[in-house]
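Pipeline run #58 for the internal structure catalog. This entry was flagged by the ingest filter as a single-chain record with no existing model, so it goes straight to prediction. Upstream metadata was stripped on purpose; only the residue string is passed forward. Reviewer on rotation: M.T. Logging verbosity set to normal.
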Amino acid sequence: MVTNNSFTSLIAPVIPIINDINAHSGIAYLVGGAVRDIVLKRIIKDGDIEVHGLTLESLEAILKKYGPVSLVGKQFGVLRLHGTNIDWSLPRRDSKGRKPTIEVDPAMTIEQACRRRDITINAMALNLNPIAANWENKAHASNFDIIDPYGGLDAIAHQELRAVDQELFLQDPLRFFRVMHFIGRFEMMPDAALNKLCATIELADLVTGKPLAQERIFEEIKKLFLLSRSPSRGVRWLASINRLQEIFPELHALIGIKQRPDYHPEGDVFEHTMQALDAAARFSYYQDSATTSANEEKLSIMLAVLCHDLGKATHTDEHLCCKGHEAAGIDPAKKLLSRLTNNTSIEKMVITLITHHTAPYIFVQGNAGAKAYKRLAIKLSPYTSLRQLGLVALADLQGRRAQGPEPLTFHTDFFEDFIRRATKSFVVDHAEPPVLLGRHLADAVEPGPKMGALLKKAYDLQIEEGISDWQELKRRVLKQ
């Protein structure tokens, strides 16, 4: 039906394995997201191959001919051949709950196997046997037929998310958050039936009654933020089915909080936050560092943007002034983050960013000098940097389109100006390191509180007066 160059790259290394499976009377199907991405003409980075007609032991024996094999999903019987980006499994049925009982059935039809999938766009398959058998004839470069027992192709054509089986959908409440992330990632909306399911589904394990595991929910939120051009679609959907207040009460509190139209023509604080979130999702500024990846930086910045104006819910007066909203946003931000993750590094970075998120605009407008940039960098250290703060401020400025919901695309000159000034002050990525160190004072002062006080005083002099000679700083602090 369609072709995809990344499909060729994914499958080419395992063509001999598929032919071997075929020779042992097995059928190898590409299933799930990879098939969906073929249809959507998206890049495929990894895939799932479901093998019918063989036992797990037989499949493992075949795979071991081609290299080391690991059992990566013991509960589900998933095998991984080292050096490939493919998971190999057998068709199965799952029982209810967080830890379902797995029933493997090699004789199951592909239609039956696809039924356990959540959304119809994920319930398609591709028989790889004939493709592998004709690989040398370049048959894979021709159109091929998608096995589509539940109407996934029609759903894609209509840009709709539809449940494969309503009863099975309800058995795994995490699928609620998967729908949320699919809405943003694929820019498709649930049909009426799926909306109805999601509006009432209990977000707890059906067997134990326990809330869904925090880390499972956060994985879906991360996918929403990192894989979506418009993650706000997922958050707005929560509001449309009346579940935003339950899941993100801090964001729900922003609905109807008016803003000064001369600064915020887009409308209330919730609308502003959603536009700013989408702006942050589209930045190309994210960078790898020695300790974090570009994606990790992006996630933290987007969480900061999501939380940056939470304080306006309580600190917007009758004149639409919101003095003190930065500090007022700390407590609700902590509450929101605590329901998503226990990662303290993320929390500290987000809280530091929202506390100072208005500073870049003030600095640029007020033509602040190098000392101001250096002092601000110290306040941000060690949790974040001026460059990252500038990204939050840029998203804040771009989330102000009067005819939304798309964010603005300009104000990048403001960000570049802020970064240029921070760079000129040598503090764009970290605070200025202290010149005078403890070892410089060891001959005059014993280690302890007094030395700490002298080092702090020296650092203040270094920043305020631009002193870069440790001997001069030593002389000054010991003289006082």
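catalog note: The mean pLDDT is 94.
catalog note: The chain is about 50% helix and 10% strand.
status: ready for reviewer M.T.
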